[in-house]
Specification:
alpha+beta; Helix Hairpins; HSP40/DNAj peptide-binding domain; 3 domains; three-stranded mixed beta sheet; 17 strands
C-alpha cells in the first residue's frame, strides 16, 4: 500500500480530527455501493480504509513515522536503532571467548547500560508488531509479525436488476405480471397498489450466489403509455366523443375502461365538456382496501360533441334556424 498520508490526502502533521474527516469524505465517495460501474472503487476503498486504520491508531502511527513498520503494519527493520548510535538500543558486548566469556559492562567503562538495565521489550515490540499479550497467570509472549487487519467478512451475492414493462391497463387495475429471471424461471409477480414508473420490488434470494447468502432480484417497473387513458393521481381520465343527436336526444353509449367497456347513459341536452364519473374504475390506491382488494379511484369521462364529417344534411335541417341563446353573454360579448 502507498503512503497512508498520501492515500488520505493529509499532511504528516495532520490532527486526528483532520484524518477522520478526510477518511469519511473519501469513504463516502469511493464506497462500492455508490460506484457499481467502477471496478477500481473496491480496491481504492480498501486502501483508504487500511490507511485510516493505521493512522487512527496512535501507536501504529508513531511506529510508522519512526520507520519501524510499513504502511501495511509489517516491521521494516526490527534491529534499526541498535548499535553505537542506536539511542534506545544496548551497547554491551560479549568478552573474549564468545558468549561464555561473560558480558562486558560498558557502564563500568564510561557509560551505557549494564545487563541489569537491559530491557528487550522494545526489541520484541519491533520484531513482533508491538506489545506483549499477558495471560491471567502473568505470562507474556509476542503476538506475531505485524498486526494485519482482520479479513473482511464474507459478502452476500450481488443483486440482479430487472426492468418490467407493464401495460397501462394492467398497472391501473393491479393485474399480476409474469417475469423471467436470470436462471430462466418465470414467476408471477403481484404489483403493489399505487404502482408507478420507477416503483421497485425486491425478490429475496433471486440474485447472484455468495459465501454469505444469495443476493436479491430488484425489479423496476416501467408503465407504458395509453392511446386515450391518462392517469390523474388515483383517477383515470379520458375524452369520449358523442354525436350531436346523442347529445340532443340522449341515449346509452359504450365507454371503454381499463376493465373493459361499460354502458354510459347520456342525458338529453348534454353539453360538450360534461364530465361523467365511473366509480371504482380508476387506479389502485396505496394503503386503502375494499374488502380484501385494494381500493381504486374513479374514471372521469369528458364528453366531446362530434359533428358529422358531411355537414350538408345538417345544414338543410338547420336552414333558417338560429339558436336564440347567447352562450357568450357571461363574457360581456
Amino acid at each position: 500500500m502507498a503512503d497512508p498520508y498520501r492515500t488520505l490526502g493529509v499532511a504528516r502533521t495532520a490532527s486526528e480530527k483532520e484524518i477522520k474527516s478526510a477518511y469519511r469524505k473519501l469513504a463516502k465517495e469511493l464506497h462500492p455501493d455508490r460506484n457499481k460501474d467502477n471496478p477500481q472503487a473496491p480496491e481504492k476503498f480498501s486502501d483508504v480504509t487500511k490507511a485510516y486504520d493505521l493512522l487512527s491508531d496512535k501507536d501504529k502511527r508513531a511506529r510508522f513515522d519512526r520507520g519501524e513498520i510499513d504502511a501495511d503494519g509489517n516491521p521494516l527493520n526490527p534491529f534499526a536503532g541498535m548499535g553505537a548510535g542506536g539511542g534506545r538500543g544496548f551497547r554491551g558486548s560479549y568478552g573474549p571467548g564468545g558468549p561464555r566469556g561473560g558480558y562486558r559492562d560498558q557502564a563500568a567503562e564510561g557509560g551505557g547500560m549494564g545487563p541489569e538495565d537491559l530491557d528487550l521489550s522494545d526489541l520484541f515490540e519491533g520484531l513482533f508488531g508491538g506489545g506483549r499479550s499477558r495471560s491471567a497467570g502473568g505470562g507474556a509472549g509476542p503476538r506475531g509479525f505485524g498486526q494485519r487487519p482482520p479479513p473482511p467478512p464474507p459478502k452476500r451475492g450481488a443483486d440482479i436488476h430487472y426492468r418490467l414493462a407493464v401495460p397501462f391497463t394492467d398497472a391501473a387495475s393491479g393485474r399480476d405480471q409474469r417475469i423471467t429471471l436470470a436462471d430462466g424461471k418465470a414467476i408471477s409477480l403481484k404489483l403493489p397498489a399505487g404502482v408507478e414508473t420507477g416503483t421497485q420490488m425486491r425478490l429475496k434470494g433471486k440474485g447472484h450466489s455468495g459465501p454469505a447468502g444469495d443476493g436479491d432480484g430488484i425489479v423496476t417497473v416501467e408503465i407504458g403509455p395509453h392511446p386515450f387513458f391518462r392517469r390523474d393521481g388515483d383517477n383515470i381520465r379520458m375524452d369520449l366523443p358523442i354525436t350531436l343527436d346523442e347529445a340532443v336526444k340522449g341515449g346509452k353509449v359504450k365507454c371503454p375502461t381499463v376493465d373493459g367497456p361499460v354502458m354510459l347513459t347520456i342525458q338529453p341536452g348534454t353539453h360538450g365538456g360534461t364530465v361523467m364519473r365511473l366509480k371504482g374504475k380508476g387506479w389502485t390506491k396505496k394503503g386503502e382496501k375494499t374488502g380484501d382488494q385494494p381500493a381504486r379511484g374513479d374514471q372521469l369521462v369528458t364528453l366531446e360533441i362530434q359533428l358529422p364529417e358531411d355537414l350538408s344534411e345538417l345544414e338543410k335541417r338547420l336552414d333558417g334556424w338560429v339558436d336564440p341563446s347567447r352562450p357568450r353573454e357571461k363574457f360581456g360579448l
